């Protein structure tokens, strides 16, 4: 009985020392255990390959094709998303610019609602005078508004487009 109690405390349960419930022990002198374990792991991992009939090279090729397909599937929507994000940023910048212009125009509208401001603008920009006033125009040397622009001494001949084309072909 003492022997039975001692064996129960071990892994094997109530069985005799040296026996295992999981697999029988092979006793071969020429074959090491690592070779057996390697053979078992290879046969377990290649079970899926045997079912599909694929070698490791073919499995790697299939995995590469699947990864490429996923990359191409993701690339187009990602490119679209990034371009739309850039468009949104551009439109927000444009919107801020237009809001600034609207603010300036509203300020200008408020200025021009005053009749005195309108009269001053008419006098300054358009040269209007009230009846009975004498206008004076003072021209300074730096002010070239009154002088007509100088034209070139030799103005190019104004021929029709087909004459210009023919003359350019004829010169070459």
From TrEMBL:
<feature type="region of interest" description="Disordered">
    <location>
        <begin position="1"/>
        <end position="42"/>
    </location>
</feature>
<keyword id="KW-0472">Membrane</keyword>
<feature type="compositionally biased region" description="Basic and acidic residues">
    <location>
        <begin position="142"/>
        <end position="161"/>
    </location>
</feature>
<feature type="region of interest" description="Disordered">
    <location>
        <begin position="125"/>
        <end position="172"/>
    </location>
</feature>
<feature type="compositionally biased region" description="Basic residues">
    <location>
        <begin position="7"/>
        <end position="28"/>
    </location>
</feature>
<protein>
    <submittedName>
        <fullName>Septum formation initiator</fullName>
    </submittedName>
</protein>
<feature type="transmembrane region" description="Helical">
    <location>
        <begin position="60"/>
        <end position="78"/>
    </location>
</feature>
<keyword id="KW-0812">Transmembrane</keyword>
<keyword id="KW-1133">Transmembrane helix</keyword>
<dbReference type="InterPro" id="IPR007060">
    <property type="entry name" value="FtsL/DivIC"/>
</dbReference>
<dbReference type="Pfam" id="PF04977">
    <property type="entry name" value="DivIC"/>
</dbReference>
